[in-house]
Amino acid sequence: MSVIEQNAEDAAEAYRAYRLFNDTGRGLFSNLYKSWAGTIHTSVYLPKEQEVWFALGGDQEPEVFKFGEWLAGKPVRNTSVHGQIDTGIGFAHTDALFK
Predict the structure, then answer these.
(1) pLDDT: which is higher, 83 or 89
(2) DSSP H stretches of helix in the chain
(3) Quick one: which of 11, 20, 42, 90 has the fewest CB in 10 Å?
(4) How far apart are CA 45 and CA 99, in angstroms?
(5) What digits encode the pLDDT tens for the residues 5-64?
(6) In the prediction, which pLDDT does 78 show?
(7) Pair 52, 46: CB distance under 8 Å
(8) Is-contact 33 85, C-beta < 8 A?
(9) Local structure of residue 75 (DSSP, 8 states)
């Protein structure tokens, strides 16, 4: 909470707030995956713009999902999200778990 309070100026604007939460050197993103306390994804929901920003891992640019366009019947441009999680721990959807 103190990191957010100290960076209240950044937290007031969507992209800067996203960077505050996603950048690995800013104090909020966590690599403590062995303690099951690591940040896997960062997301931003912008109701007025009808957008969702989403990223896997840290120091990533967000994938922008145009939710409003999807509601209007347009196809979703983004069919997958790619990122990198800095851990050797396997996830249920990867082969690493089964090696």
Answers:
(1) 83
(2) 2-6, 8-11, 14-22, 67-71
(3) 90
(4) 36
(5) 999 988 889 999 999 999 999 999 999 988 888 999 999 999 999 999 999 999 999 999
(6) 79
(7) yes
(8) yes
(9) P
Query: Within 13 Å and on the Cβ side, how many CA atoms surround 3?
Result: 13
Residue 95: band (very low, low, confident or very high) from pLDDT cuts 50, 70, 90:
low
Q: Can you give the three-state secondary structure of 39-50, one letter per residue?
A: CCEEEEEECCCC
**16, 62 contact by CB (below 8 A):** no
Q: What is the structure's pLDDT at 94?
A: 64
CB-CB contact of 34 with 89 (8 Å) = yes
- DSSP line for 18-38: HHHHH-TTSSS----GGGT--
Contacts of 37 (CB under 8 A, 6+ apart): 30
Strands of the 63-66 sheet, one edge to the other:
41-46, 51-56, 63-66
